[in-house]
Design a protein that fits this description.
Layout lengths: L1 H18 L1 H28 L9 H8 L4 H20 L29 H4 L3 H22 L2 H7 L5 H30 L1 H27 L17 H31 L6 H34 L3 H21 L13 H14 L44 H5 L9 H19 L1 H8 L4 H6 L5 E2 L2 E2 L6 H27 L7 H28 L16 H25 L5 H30 L17 H25 L15 H11 L1
Antiparallel strand pairs: 1-2
Helix pairs in contact: 1-4, 2-4, 6-10, 6-11, 6-12, 7-8, 8-9, 8-10, 8-21, 9-10, 9-12, 10-11, 10-21, 11-12, 11-18, 11-20, 13-15, 16-21, 16-22, 18-20, 19-20, 19-22, 20-21
Length: 678
């Protein structure tokens, strides 16, 4: 009954408006004077309604105002009509007031190209990115506090041979980065980046805690041992099992955390804003910078204590750093910028291959006639559309519409262009990724053979003994210095010469990294030749100074700035929106396979060269071997790899995305929904 009366009132009010616009203006002024007194009464009435009534539109507000008399109803209706008119005039604009409430869940927001991004007002930006960089530095300190000296721990405490210890470290390091694929999958598909980072950091802390406890209770006896002179008691079987369990928990936690934290940090910048888009690219350089700052402490201070037998102190400091990293990460929970997961990519990619195979004899349609969803909505929820490319055209059959597809929309027979292009992107990235594995073989030598080589060189300065693992500090310093030189000098210079604001493209930088990495292997081989010339009969150590290793560490450090930072930018930028973490994980997976390939090469070389009385290239006593030949072998493989990489890089075509990221999806509603789910 009330609704009927209200409709009648609206009709009467409309007639009044039609008769006299001047009268409406006078009444509007009267309404504005009464609005404050009416507001409190309206709010009380709103709170008395149930949850369904709270979601009603302005029609319900007009019902509440009926009780104020005919004149006030006219004023209310005229004011409401004016508001509706203004809302049509301002459609598509975003209110820029700082105190505004975020859009409600599910709302659609659009903005003009020059309008400020609504995301920057509440969440994301450099403040949150810096918090994540600090998290990365602390987590890296904790991880390398264990990893950088692990090969010596296995030799001195667990009593393994040099070759076995090097292989075990390579396998462990490979497993670390293999778990990055697990973290990336969960992040992109189900958990989102925030929750994935949090969960894997908890596992990381648990692993470090178990390792510290195991070493203290079962392995490090007496309390200071394994320094190269004072032997530890033979390890117990239970202690060895728990130790391996703990270090693989560390591998699981750190591996799953790494690619996700890199992508989550990049998420803090809005790609729709040109200024923040450039900040997003700079973030990856700072990300690798933060990683090396964490390494610098662990590779100098912690390595010194561990090398002198204080293993428990080193492990406890690593544990404390990981705990602080986790707490600092959780501090920013309410202010991070969140991107919702886009669902499991495996069925999407599989559908493309199945649909293309089922249409084996179908001729691909012209690009304009391929199947795609109407408007700006993508088949992949939360992702931008990907425009058609002329590569791997066989897969276009999956988006070709046949007569059967007109009557039956089966995703295993008909896919959108965006789905097809996502599958193409994966196929195009894989050959480039495979070319980076040999570089990771070079990188892996720092944690294994470089350390073993330095351990048999003269490392005394007066009474001070330099730990072999601490020589990686020269690698870290070269990374830090090279990052600054690259950003401040090389990028502006190359930008002026090439016209590319980035200076060098990611593919160019990766190619330069391969060449410099090859030089590092040549330098390591030359150092080994010189070391063998200064070996004195009956002595383990050569009289050649350990500082002859500096060039090989510096070359590796400079190459990292070009290769690994370039990889992070390239794979993250070229991966479609639905598999961004997968793109970042490819860099980590490259390191993983590099470790496995290194382990395989060592086993193959020893199997071929260690025959009869010949001890092989990498025997327990390095003074009887020829480790320089192994370094030169890697250098030769790098040259071949570079030639193949050059062929692929020249023919690579970048992904072509449609419009800014998620330009029609309310970012605030995504943030709120992610926080609620967590």
């Amino acid at each position: 009954m009330m609704t009927g009366n209200n409709n009648k009132d609206v009709a009467e009010s409309s007639e009044v408006l039609n008769r006299s616009s001047n009268d409406i203006e006078q009444k509007r002024n009267s309404h504005e004077n009464k609005q404050q007194s009416n507001f409190h009464e309206i709010q009380l009435k709103k709170h008395s309604h149930d949850s369904t009534e709270e979601k009603r539109d302005s029609h319900d507000t007009e019902e509440n105002r009926n009780s104020h008399g005919t004149e006030e109803k006219t004023n209310s209706n005229s004011h409401d009509i004016e508001e509706k008119t203004n809302s049509h005039e301002n459609e598509g604009k975003i209110d820029s007031h700082e105190g505004d409430e975020p859009p409600q869940k599910g709302t659609i927001t659009t903005r003009s190209p020059n309008a400020p991004s609504p995301i920057r007002k509440r969440r994301g930006g450099w403040k949150l990115a810096i918090l994540l960089l600090a998290n990365q530095g602390l987590a890296t300190l904790a991880f390398f506090g264990v990893g950088v000296n692990l090969v010596l721990f296995l030799v001195r405490v667990l009593e393994q041979s040099n070759a076995v210890a090097a292989n075990n470290v390579s396998k462990w390091t490979g497993t670390v980065y293999l778990f990055s694929l697990v973290g990336a999958f969960l992040s992109d598909s189900y958990w989102g980046r925030y929750l994935t980072c949090a969960v894997f950091q908890v596992f990381f802390v648990m692993g470090l805690g178990l390792m510290s406890l195991t070493s203290w209770l079962f392995l490090i006896h007496p309390s200071v041992c394994g320094d190269g002179e004072k032997l530890c008691n033979p390890p117990s079987k239970a202690g060895v099992i728990l130790f391996y369990l703990s270090i693989y928990l560390v591998a699981f936690g750190y591996g799953g955390h790494q690619p996700t934290i890199a992508t989550f940090g990049a998420d803090q910048f809005d790609e729709a804003d040109p200024e923040q888009q450039s900040s997003r690219a700079v973030f990856f350089s700072y990300f690798y910078f933060a990683l090396n700052v964490g390494c610098l402490f662990s590779n100098t201070i912690l390595v010194y204590y561990e090398d002198h037998g204080y293993w428990n102190i080193g492990f406890l400091v690593s544990l404390g750093s990981a705990v602080i990293a986790l707490l600092s990460y959780l501090m920013g929970s309410s202010r991070y910028r969140y991107i919702k997961p886009c669902g499991n990519p495996l069925p999407r990619v599989a559908q493309v291959f199945v649909a293309a195979a089922r249409k084996w004899h179908v001729v691909p349609a012209d690009p304009d006639n391929l199947y795609e969803m109407e408007g700006k909505e993508s088949a992949i929820k939360g992702s931008r559309k990907i425009l058609h490319s002329n590569e791997i055209e066989f897969l276009d059959k999956a988006a070709t519409i046949t007569d059967r597809d007109q009557n039956e929309k089966n995703p295993w027979r008909l896919c959108t262009v965006t789905q097809v292009e996502e599958a193409k992107c994966v196929l195009k990235l894989l050959p480039i990724w495979l070319c980076t594995i040999i570089y990771s073989v070079i990188f892996t030598q720092m944690a294994s053979l470089f350390v073993e080589q330095g351990d048999v060189m003269h490392a005394q300065i007066g009474n001070f003994h330099i730990p072999a693992a601490s020589m990686s500090a020269f690698d870290i310093c070269s990374v830090l210095i090279s990052t600054g030189i690259y950003r401040q000098v090389l990028v502006p210079l190359a930008g002026r010469l090439s016209g590319n604001p980035k200076g060098l493209s990611e593919l160019q930088r990766m190619g330069i990294g391969l060449i410099i990495g090859m030089l590092a292997m040549v330098a390591a081989g030359a150092t080994e030749i010189a070391r063998l010339q200064y070996v004195e009969p009956g002595k383990k150590e050569s009289s050649l100074s350990i500082f002859w290793q500096i060039p090989q560490y510096v070359f590796v450090g400079v190459s990292e700035v070009f290769m690994y930072v370039g990889q992070l930018e390239f794979f993250n930028g070229e991966a479609p929106d639905g598999i961004k973490s997968f793109g970042s994980s490819l860099c980590m997976a490259s390191i993983s396979l590099g470790n496995y390939v290194s382990s395989m090469l060592v086993a193959m070389v020893m199997g071929i060269t260690a025959r009869g009385s010949d001890p092989g290239w990498i025997p327990n006593n390095l003074n009887e071997g020829h480790m320089e030949r192994f370094y030169f072998l890697i250098a030769g493989l790098t040259v071949l790899d570079f030639a193949f990489y050059l062929y692929l890089a020249k023919r690579y075509k970048c992904i072509n995305l449609e419009g800014p990221e998620n330009e029609e999806v309310s970012q605030e509603s995504q943030d709120d929904e992610v926080l609620r789910s967590v």
